[in-house]
Amino acid sequence: MDVHKEVFLNADKVIVDDWEQSNREKKVINQLVLEGRFSREQLHAELGEILLGRKPGRESDEEIILLNPMGMAIEDIACAQSIYQKAVAKQVGIRLNLG
């Protein structure tokens, strides 16, 4: 769920998984953009930029960081990879031939 507009405006860093997904109709970021109160330039980073080391994540314990993921399934993919690796290591599960 989206958070209140003031949370975006008062955060030290706003991070999204994808700007285009986050800045779409009826989303709080889009409302702020249309009001002229937020822009792509004010966005600290997309999540991938932090994961790749292109932009810093948390730089101090006092920072207020708002992560506003909008359903790119990055967490699902990361979890699935971790579960898969554990299953392979323990030699459990059933391998499906999908190709």
List its traits.
three-stranded parallel β-sheet, elongated, 99 residues, Rossmann fold
TL;DR of this structure?
The chain has 99 residues and is an alpha/beta fold. Helices cover 39% and strands 10% of the residues.
Gross geometry: elongated
* Class from helix and strand fractions: alpha/beta
CATH arch. level architecture of the domain at 5-71: 3-Layer(aba) Sandwich
Query: Span between N and C termini?
Result: 37 Å
SSE series? HEHHEHEH
Q: Please, what is the average pLDDT?
A: 91
The Cα radius of gyration reads 18 Å
| CATH level-1 class of the domain at 5-71 | Alpha Beta
CATH topology tier name of the domain at 5-71: Rossmann fold
Fraction in beta strands: 5-15%
Strand tally is 3
Count every helix, treating DSSP H or I runs of 4 or more residues as helices.
Answer: 5
Largest sheet: 3 strands, parallel
Unreliable residue runs: none
Helicity level, as a percent range?
25-40%
Strand order of the largest sheet: 2-1-3
What would CATH call the homologous superfamily of the domain at 5-71? NAD(P)-binding Rossmann-like Domain
Characterize the structure shown.
- With about 100 residues, this protein is of the alpha/beta class.
- It has a domain of about 70 residues: Rossmann fold (3-Layer(aba) Sandwich).
- It is built from 5 helices and 3 strands, in the order H-E-H-H-E-H-E-H.
- The chain has a 3-stranded parallel β-sheet with strand order 2-1-3.
- The relative contact order is 0.19.
